[in-house]
Amino acid sequence: MKIETAKSIVAEWLEERSLPDLIERAAEPVDFSKLSDILAIEGPRRAGKTFYMYQLIQNLLNSGASKEDILFIDFEDYRFTNTSPSDIDQLFTAFRQLTGRQPTYLFFDEIQQFPQWSRVIRTLHNQERYKIIVLGSNSKLSSHEIATELRGRYRDRIMLPLSFSELLRFKGIEYNEKMLYTSARGKLLEIFDSYLKEGGFPEVVQRDTNREKRELLQSYYRTLFYHDIIDRYNIKSRSILEIMMSYCLEAYAELFSISGFSKYLHHYDLAVSKKTISNYLNYLREAFFIILNDKFSFSPRKRLMNPKKVYLLDTGFGYLGTAFSENKGKLLENVVAIELLRQQQEMFYFKNQNECDFIIKQGMRPTEAIQVAWELTANSRQRELKGLSEAMQALNIKKGQILTYNQEDQIDIEGYTIQVTPAWKWLLNANEVDIGEQQEK
Q: Lower CB density within 10 Å: C or N end of the chain?
């Protein structure tokens, strides 16, 4: 790369590039003064990862940093065609010549496009001079590969589609508890109904019609299928993957048995090994299409051998299924799974005589049991309580709750006090300090 080209790239950032209007995402603030590891922003495509990077830059500027302290590079820029690892030096030379100093903060978008990117980033990190934030494309760079390439020198931050509280802000609504006692409560439920069905992809929720929303989700689905999975993993059995993804659109919030799916494929006169099915399922998780929960067990082998419980990474994908009517209970349970993932909770399901939807584990012990039901009726109440109380007794859990669509209650059963809470209220009261929390690797 010629120095004049490098200067052009850097000068455009310093002088011409303005940050877009931002609606702040709910994430724990980054304390750059204590940031010693590389910060890697991960998550599904179109969830707002680049905009979150802009948010971090804006926070720096608001705290007193200047643009001349920051080097932002989008390696998708065509001028990085046919570059070599040493061209990173040209960028720093250009920055120094234009500003008279070295940058302190490095923001690198689409980092996987730069040759030998991980070696370059590790070299910069070893100099202990920079605060480094990187973002890569799902079609080229998985969470596993980031961990492998950066070798324990990074923290990650997961950026998922909008949470319910973020969606309210997108719509210009600032939630406060007083709203629960006014007509605004009805508006909250109306938006929550849309959130259940349409999910939280930022561009989708801003579209006006159901047709536009569906078409956009369909484009995400096709891109994920072809680029994030087929091309990336060199999938040979394309029809198998297509059937598996369609299956997940219908059977989310349900158990996925590899043996059962193998038999399901027989209806299409298809045969494939259980190992291939397992691999494809994990590809879908790595591509941020599904969430997989293990059955709770203290034995890793038993967790591995039992069926997984599958959830969609965004409930909007359920729009693309062929079911004639929506299953509201499954949508509600799926939204809870997404929020627990957002909080980076270690979660499982419980199944013995009865079933409990979520077991939360902290450290070495399970600490909370959560049951999700659209409504506690005369028929369902006993079933939901049995599953919850059995899990709490078997695992010695003291805290249990039932999340519903709009019921609120307190139930005493077998020595336990169970809180019944509307899921939308639980979502709004989620501890946002934990949302997007960094994990050390």
A: C
Identify any residues that bridge with 368 across adjacent strands, giving them in sequence order.
360, 399
The CA angle 394-395-401, to the nearest 5 degrees, is 100
Taking the C-alpha atoms of residue 67 and residue 321, their distance in angstroms, rounded to an integer, is 46
Residue 78 burial (10 A CB sphere; 0-12, 13-18, 19+): exposed
Distance between terminal CA atoms of the chain? 34
Residue 295 tokens, joined = 């059955």
Write the pLDDT tens digit of every residue in 84-136: 999 999 999 999 999 999 999 999 999 999 999 999 999 999 999 999 999 98
The per-type count for the chain, helices as H runs and strands as E runs, is 17, 15
| Res. 408: pLDDT tops 50 | yes
What is the CATH number assigned to the segment(s) 234-326?
1.10.10.10
The answer to whether residues 351 and 274 touch, using CB atoms and an 8 Å cutoff, is no
CATH number for region 3-159: 3.40.50.300
Domain boundaries, the chain: 3-159, 234-326, 327-441
Q: Which helix (H) or strand (E) holds 120?
A: helix 117-126
- CATH code for 327-441? 3.40.1350
Distance CA 204, CA 289 (A): 16
Give the pair of three-digit tokens for residue 160. 């998922």
